[in-house]
Design a protein that fits this description.
By secondary structure, the protein is mainly alpha-helical. The protein has eight helices and two strands; from the N terminus they run αααββααααα. Strands 1-2 form a two-stranded antiparallel sheet. β1 and β2 form a beta hairpin. The radius of gyration is 18 Å and the shape is globular.
C-alpha cells in the first residue's frame, strides 16, 4: 500500500488546490441554505473523484499497467502525454490572465452560486471534479500511478481513498472554517475568497507546471528504466 499511496499525494494536492471550487463553496455558504448546499457540493466533489478514479483504475488494470513488477511502456507514454496537456492548460490559463491594470473577476455564472439548490450544487461539483481539465488529467494520472504499482485490489482502493481525501480538503476548507469559527467565519471566508480570485491564474499555472515536470521525470524513467 505504501508505494501506491506515495504515488497519489502530489496528484491529490494538485486537485485539492482548485481556486474556483473553493470560491464556490464560500459563496454557497452565503446563501439561504448555505450549510446544506456547501455540504452537498463537497460530498459530490468527493463522489466525482471516486467514480472517475475507479473507472480509470479499472481501465489501467485491464490494460496491464504493471507488468512483472514494473510499469508498462504505455504508462510512461501516458505520463508524457498528461504532462504535455497540463502544460497546455497552464499556457491557456496564463494567456487568459487579466492585464496588469485589470482586476481579476469571477466567471459570470458564479454570480448566481448563492442561489443554487442542492441539486445544482451537486451537479456543479461533479463537473468541477471530473470535467475541468486540470482535475481530469490529475485524476487520470493518480489512478494510473496506483495501477502501475501492481498492488492488490484492497491496497489500490486504499490509495485511491487517500487521493480522494487529499483532493477534497481544499473545497472542504471553507466549510470547516464556517463550522469551527462561526463568529469570524464571514471575514475569514471573504479574505479567502478575495485571495483565490486574485491568485487563481498563478496558482493553476504553478501547479500544472510542477506536476507536469514530475510526470516528465516519471515518464522518462519508465521508458528508459
Amino acid at each position: 500500500m505504501g508505494a501506491a499511496t506515495a504515488q497519489v499525494v502530489a496528484f491529490g494536492v494538485g486537485v485539492t488546490i482548485s481556486p474556483l471550487a473553493i470560491i464556490a463553496v464560500t459563496l454557497l455558504l452565503g446563501g439561504a441554505h448555505g450549510r446544506l448546499t456547501a455540504c452537498v457540493f463537497v460530498a459530490a466533489w468527493a463522489l466525482g473523484l471516486i467514480v472517475l478514479g475507479t473507472l480509470v483504475l479499472l481501465i489501467a488494470d485491464g490494460a496491464n499497467a504493471a507488468q512483472s513488477g514494473t510499469p508498462a511502456t504505455w504508462v510512461g507514454v501516458l505520463k508524457l502525454v498528461l504532462a504535455a496537456l497540463l502544460l497546455w492548460v497552464a499556457g491557456r490559463q496564463w494567456r487568459g490572465r487579466p492585464g496588469s491594470e485589470a482586476q481579476a473577476e469571477l466567471p459570470g455564472w458564479m454570480e448566481s452560486v448563492e442561489s443554487f439548490t442542492p441539486a445544482k450544487a451537486a451537479t456543479s461539483a461533479l463537473l468541477f471534479a471530473t470535467v475541468k481539465p486540470k482535475n481530469l488529467l490529475l485524476t487520470i494520472g493518480a489512478a494510473t500511478a496506483i495501477a502501475e504499482t501492481g498492488a492488490t485490489s484492497a491496497q489500490q482502493a486504499a490509495a485511491l481513498l487517500v487521493f480522494v481525501v487529499i483532493g477534497t480538503l481544499g473545497p472542504a476548507l471553507p466549510l470547516v472554517v464556517y463550522l469551527l469559527a462561526r463568529d469570524r467565519a464571514s471575514a475569514v471566508l471573504a479574505e479567502m475568497r478575495d485571495w483565490m480570485v486574485r491568485e487563481n491564474t498563478t496558482v493553476i499555472v504553478v501547479l500544472c507546471v510542477v506536476i507536469a515536470a514530475k510526470l516528465v521525470g516519471d515518464g522518462l524513467a519508465t521508458l528508459t528504466g
